[in-house]
Amino acid sequence: MRGKEMEKIGKVIICMLCLFILTGTRVEGASDILSKTTEENNINIVIGEGQDTPNCVYGKDVKITINLINEGKDDASKVTIAPILDSSTDVFPFEIKKMNYDKRIDTLPGSSSVADREKRIKTVSYDFTTRKDVKTGYMKVSFLIAYQSPDGSPHTTSRYMLVTTQCAPVP
Question: Which run of H or of E encompasses 127?
């Protein structure tokens, strides 16, 4: 398990223990909370692994293709990925030309249903124009990913990738 998942489980256990100490009663549904938290660990969506960092030049169009893979064992269904937009060039280096950048994937299979890792990779692409006032350097571009676990419950997570940006020459 990753650090954040362990931290979440630890907080749930501490809350259950505090309630038990304060009230002297067992917390009903506590095992459901723990199993739900553990279930989330069975889906682990990773983006951009092994891909080259996109090079984004001021004022130029760039096609960004992102590989997604579910490193967990359970399937993630009704997957939606979208960049987290921002009006600040320091946060989001691309022109915002559309109201919606959602990309959908029916299923990101887990290792239980598709053992071959390469066959679990799905791809989405975005066509962006790099802002003219972008600074030279590396920038994080964050994405929000929503999906359903096998029991139909909704989940969201965020992931980021790095891009290199190149500013206009100084006159």
Answer: strand 122-129
Beta bridge partners of 124: 66
Q: Which two tokens stand for residue 33?
A: 């909370």
Residue 52 DSSP label: P
Whole-prediction pTM: 0.75
CA 28, CA 104: separation in Å to the nearest integer? 37
Distance CA 81, CA 67 (A): 11
Buried b (16+ CB within 10 A) or exposed e, 92-118: bbbeeeeeebebebebbbbbeebeeee
Structure tokens at 6: 């362990």
DSSP 49: T
Say if strands 154-166 and 55-57 run parallel, antiparallel, or are unpaired: parallel
> In angstroms, rounded to a whole number, what is the distance separating the alpha carbons of residues 107 and 148?
9
Q: pLDDT by residue (tens digit) across 128-152?
A: 999 999 999 999 999 999 999 999 9
* 128, 110 Cβ separation under 8 angstroms: no
